[in-house]
Recover the amino acids of this structure.
């Protein structure tokens, strides 16, 4: 009996220590929007969600560039690319359901065709018939899924360290291990080990020294938006379901640019080679010194490859951050 009491008291003490050290209650949209969603951000109604969106560049672009971010990220990951492209092309980026200022899906369904349907609904909302669709990691997986299921809507494809094939990560951010793990709802809503945000970002950059304080703060604060942490856990649970369409990647028949960081320890560059083999006529560029988020780690070099793929002239050096 004394042993049981000792165990219970020990668990209780550890819980108190954890809560005290990791106290980070959810935050309201109104709290976060002024800092992370000022102009040119707008918020549009799509699939019963208030979607955080930035839509920049000429309105007469017949095939806008639409960019999708990865897990525990936001539309801000494309800031450098958008700045470099918006003078000549319409650039659309938005926070996916469960991330950023968009927040969780009301039905709690994520992944696979759910994300594809969301992208199509957003394109319809913006009256975009056809686009250049690009994405990083999770966003890359959604991009090729969309091109496969709705080929009439996608002219060209840009895959940046994209999800797609079964793989074994060399190293995962600690936060990924929380996804899919059952936790008490109160704990999910009120605690979050802030150190894992910094660890996760340094893990996915080729050069961890490039991870600045603003990036850490932004990622941490947007993860605190009401419902986002529960959405991450639910996405993780649904990721455990087998991929259904990976075997059909070779059916893609559209111009495709594959960008990868050779230091990607989450989705290794062998997957870039596989995409390149499976998608006939695709172009592959691997950056030896970059990691899982090359568009964010070095926007200037990576967007230069995009400009070449889209046959745009090289911009002045000062126009890319």
């Amino acid at each position: 009996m004394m042993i049981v009491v000792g165990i219970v008291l020990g668990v209780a003490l550890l819980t108190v220590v954890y809560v005290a050290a990791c106290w980070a209650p959810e935050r309201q949209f109104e709290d976060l929007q002024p800092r992370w969603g000022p102009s040119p951000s707008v918020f549009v109604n799509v699939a019963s969600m208030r979607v955080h969106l930035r839509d920049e560049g000429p309105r007469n672009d017949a095939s806008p560039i639409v960019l999708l971010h990865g897990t525990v990220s936001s539309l801000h990951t494309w800031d450098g690319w958008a700045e470099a492209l918006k003078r000549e092309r319409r650039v659309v980026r938005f926070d996916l359901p469960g991330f950023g200022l968009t927040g969780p899906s009301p039905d709690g369904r994520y992944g696979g065709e759910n994300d594809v349907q969301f992208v199509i609904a957003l394109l319809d909302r913006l009256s975009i018939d056809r686009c250049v669709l690009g994405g990083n990691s999770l966003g890359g997986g959604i991009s090729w899924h969309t091109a496969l299921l709705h080929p009439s809507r996608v002219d060209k494809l840009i895959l940046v360290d994209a999800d797609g094939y079964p793989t074994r990560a060399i190293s995962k951010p600690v936060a990924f291990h929380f996804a899919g793990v059952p936790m008490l709802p109160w704990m999910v809503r009120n605690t979050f080990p802030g150190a894992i945000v910094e660890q996760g970002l340094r893990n996915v950059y080729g050069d961890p020294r490039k991870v600045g304080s603003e990036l850490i703060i932004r990622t941490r604060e947007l993860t605190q938006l009401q419902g986002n942490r529960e959405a991450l856990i639910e996405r993780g649970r649904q990721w455990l379901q087998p991929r259904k369409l990976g075997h059909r990647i070779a059916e893609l028949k559209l111009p495709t640019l594959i960008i990868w960081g050779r230091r990607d320890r989450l989705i290794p560059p062998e997957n870039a080679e596989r995409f390149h083999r499976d998608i006939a006529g695709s172009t592959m560029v691997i950056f030896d010194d970059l990691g899982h988020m090359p568009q964010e780690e070095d926007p200037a070099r990576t967007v230069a490859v995009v400009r070449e793929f889209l046959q745009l002239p090289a911009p002045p050096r000062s126009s890319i951050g």
